């Protein structure tokens, strides 16, 4: 324990009357050096830390969702008991007495609930309501404020992630321990505030030099004016009476201008609305005209692709033409059927004739008579079957399509097959006349073949004549584009019918567009008439735009501004003259001004002297603070570097502050990093080392306030936890340290570096 710290009291125990879940509870005793409050989760460790801060600097107000530890049916209240720090020779005896008191309590390390006896040397700080303030020897905490306590003395894992206002906090702590009655940093801030008051122009600061100078200048001007006011009174009275008619004239002109501007504004709004309507109607008109032109062009294109004569056909003519086409189609179908039948008959007869011719070839000669009978038998069977096979389908097909030709041909083939069968039978039974019969058959087959060929030629000729007749008839009725095709003729008639329908639809759409266009043009003409009337009412030329109205409004506005300025000038002058003439009755005003001027001058001289003294004090304080910082601040960062190296086992060895005011650390291989680039544990170790260094260097600040550390070692590994424990043990040689934890390994780490560790269990 250093000599500077020897006489400062330390926190011996806490008495919680009501705070959070605790009521009428005493916790302690604590030793002046290193203490650990050990308890399970939710045992109340954080509550105790918040309670100590609340007693010293006020209970936290209920804001947001933070826990303020306010009991349901009671006010927060409690006391902190401080005892004089024992001398080195007496420390062991005092600590043994505290340990005996703890052993006699109902719980280990926690005194029994209820009252606690106070010795004659104990100092008690207590608080109930914030409005009542701290009760007891408040000088114990006079050298520390709430912000410094929360930043430097009440440590949590979250607080160790940064150090707010590092430079300001360093200056505050270092200069607070300078040995003066108050911190030079606080004194400098107060001097700067008072200097700002002397240079401020704000109202209510009577000793402000700027305000006094302005007041003196004003009084000087008033005195100069008062010296000549007697000579001016007559001229002012004359001027005062001449201003009345001028003011009335100006007011009349202003009223006229205001009325004109209001009328122009109304007409401008009307013109703007009418212009919008006109533009919309013009767009509608142009759009309708474009639609009308597009519709006409589309109709012209369709007219070019349609035959006007067909389009002009009436309903009766179209029906008659369709009937003629249907009749021609039926006739064409019959003719085609006849041609097909003739072709089939011709093919059949030709095949029969060629078959008969083939019976007399070389093969028949070689076969001889041996196969004559077999051939006769085959022919008697095959030929009738062929004709029956050809005749029956023709007969059935003719019945299906109700064609007499096909039916007759089918019957003929069947009959012919029967005749052939009969002839074959006759030939079979007349083997002596085979050659004659064969010749007769050849002649018959040849006759039939020639007959079928002639019939086919006749059918083809009739088909050609029918096609020519169909084409001539279609050309005669205006269907030449069909080129003799009845199907194309029907398509042309359908297209003509569609064209007539589209023509009717075109006429309807054209009439609708014309009606809408006429309505839009009427509305446009009405809008133009309304606009012309609005322009006329505005007093502008025909065709004036909104911009012209704006220009007219701006011109009249400028005129009104000029008249208003003139009117205000006249009114101001009128009021000044009236006031001055009313004050002309008091002849002692000049004497009063001289007296006030002397008073202000005296006060100004006094303020100047005070300002000079404050400037001198400011320079002296700045020099003193610079000297203290140049001496103590390097020691802070030297100690912080040593402690950080101790905590990190030599990994990070140096802590520096850059000229820009940013904190940096350096590792063993000279790599520099800012705290934001460190891991969570290393960052907490950095800020813990910096706080311990500040507290060790500025050991005269908060001499009686304990360091409350709530589980600040949880993010450290085992090796770095031992280093941090050594740093806390080193701090506890000059300040009281109370560590709250729920981890037994942390308790063992603290005991390994300080065998005299005081453990208070909850």
TrEMBL record:
Coiled-coil parts of chain: 195-298, 510-537
Key words of the record: Coiled coil, Membrane, Transmembrane, Transmembrane helix
Superkingdom of this protein's organism: Bacteria
Statement: the UniProt record of this protein carries the keyword Hydrolase: no
Chain intervals for the UniProt region annotation (Disordered): 80-116
UniProt xrefs under InterPro entries: P-loop_NTPase, YhaN_AAA
Compositional bias ranges of the Low complexity kind: 97-106
All residue ranges annotated as the YhaN AAA domain in the record: 11-62
Transmembrane segments: 377-396, 408-429
Keyword ATP-binding: no
Name of this protein: AAA family ATPase
Native species: Gordonibacter urolithinfaciens
Top-level taxonomy: Bacteria, Bacillati, Actinomycetota, Coriobacteriia, Eggerthellales
């Amino acid at each position: 324990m250093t000599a500077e710290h020897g006489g400062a009291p330390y926190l011996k125990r806490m008495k919680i009357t009501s705070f959070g879940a605790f009521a009428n509870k005493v916790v302690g005793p604590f030793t002046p050096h290193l203490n650990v409050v050990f308890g399970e989760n939710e045992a109340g460790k954080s509550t105790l830390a918040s309670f100590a801060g609340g007693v010293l600097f006020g209970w936290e107000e209920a804001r947001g969702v933070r826990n303020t530890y306010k009991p349901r049916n009671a006010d927060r209240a409690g006391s902190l008991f401080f005892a004089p720090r024992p001398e080195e020779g007496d420390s062991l005896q005092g600590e043994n007495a505290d340990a005996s008191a703890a052993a006699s309590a109902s719980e280990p390390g926690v005194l029994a609930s209820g009252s606690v006896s106070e010795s004659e040397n104990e100092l008690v700080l207590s608080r109930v309501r914030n409005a009542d303030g701290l009760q007891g020897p408040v000088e114990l905490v006079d050298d520390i404020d709430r912000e410094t306590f929360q930043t430097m003395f009440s440590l949590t894992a979250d607080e160790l992630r940064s150090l707010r206002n590092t430079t300001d906090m360093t200056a505050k702590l270092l200069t607070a321990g300078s040995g003066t009655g108050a911190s030079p940093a606080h004194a400098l801030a107060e001097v700067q505030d008072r200097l700002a008051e002397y240079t401020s122009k704000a109202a209510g600061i009577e000793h402000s030099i700027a305000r006094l100078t302005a007041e003196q200048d004003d009084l000087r001007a008033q005195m100069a004016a008062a010296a000549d006011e007697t000579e001016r009174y007559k001229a002012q009275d004359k001027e005062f009476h001449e201003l009345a008619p001028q003011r009335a004239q100006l007011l009349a002109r202003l009223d006229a201008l205001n009325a004109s501007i209001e009328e122009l504004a109304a007409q401008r709004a009307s013109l703007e609305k009418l212009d919008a309507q006109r533009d919309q109607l013009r767009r509608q008109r142009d759009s309708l005209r474009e639609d009308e032109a597009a519709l006409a062009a589309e109709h012209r294109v369709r007219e070019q692709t349609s035959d006007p004569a067909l389009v002009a056909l009436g309903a009766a003519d179209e029906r008659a033409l369709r009937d003629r086409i249907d009749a021609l189609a039926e006739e064409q179908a019959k003719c085609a059927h006849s041609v097909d039948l003739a072709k089939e008959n011709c093919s059949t007869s030709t095949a029969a004739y060629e078959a008969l011719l083939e019976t007399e070839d070389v093969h028949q000669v070689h076969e001889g008579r041996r196969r004559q009978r077999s051939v006769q038998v085959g022919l008697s069977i095959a030929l009738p079957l062929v004709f029956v096979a050809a005749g029956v389908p023709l007969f059935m097909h003719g019945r299906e399509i109700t064609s007499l030709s096909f039916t007759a041909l089918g019957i003929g083939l069947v009959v012919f097959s029967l005749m052939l069968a009969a002839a074959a039978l006759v030939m079979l039974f007349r083997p002596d006349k085979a050659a004659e019969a064969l010749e007769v058959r050849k002649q018959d087959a040849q006759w039939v073949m020639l007959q079928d060929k002639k019939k086919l030629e006749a059918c083809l000729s009739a088909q050609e004549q029918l096609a020519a007749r169909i084409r001539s008839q279609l050309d005669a009725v205006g269907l030449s584009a069909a080129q003799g095709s009845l199907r194309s003729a029907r398509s042309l008639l359908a297209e003509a019918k569609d064209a007539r329908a589209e023509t009717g639809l075109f006429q309807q759409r054209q009439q609708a567009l014309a009606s809408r266009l006429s309505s839009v043009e009427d509305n446009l003409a009405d809008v133009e008439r309304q606009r012309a009337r609005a322009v006329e009412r505005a007093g502008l030329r025909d065709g004036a735009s909104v911009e012209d109205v704006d220009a007219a409004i701006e011109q009249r506005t400028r005129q009104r501004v000029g008249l208003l300025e003139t009117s205000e000038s006249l009114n101001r002058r009128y009021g000044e003259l009236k006031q001055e003439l009313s004050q002309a009755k008091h002849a002692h005003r000049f004497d009063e001004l001289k007296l006030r001027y002397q008073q202000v001058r005296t006060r100004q001289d006094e303020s100047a002297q005070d300002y000079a003294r404050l400037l001198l004090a400011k320079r002296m304080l700045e020099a003193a603070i610079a000297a203290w910082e140049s001496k103590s601040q390097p020691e802070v960062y030297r100690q912080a570097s040593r402690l950080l190296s101790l905590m990190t086992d030599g990994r990070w060895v140096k802590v520096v502050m850059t000229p820009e005011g940013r904190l940096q650390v350096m590792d063993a291989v000279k790599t520099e990093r800012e705290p934001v680039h460190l891991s969570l544990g290393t960052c907490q170790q950095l800020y813990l080392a910096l706080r311990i260094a500040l507290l060790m260097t500025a050991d005269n600040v908060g001499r009686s306030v304990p360091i409350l550390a709530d589980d600040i070692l949880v993010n450290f590994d085992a090796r770095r936890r031992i280093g941090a424990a050594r740093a806390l043990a080193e701090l506890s040689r000059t300040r009281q340290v109370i560590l709250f934890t729920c981890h037994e390994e942390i308790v063992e780490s603290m005991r390994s570096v300080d065998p005299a560790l005081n453990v208070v269990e909850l």
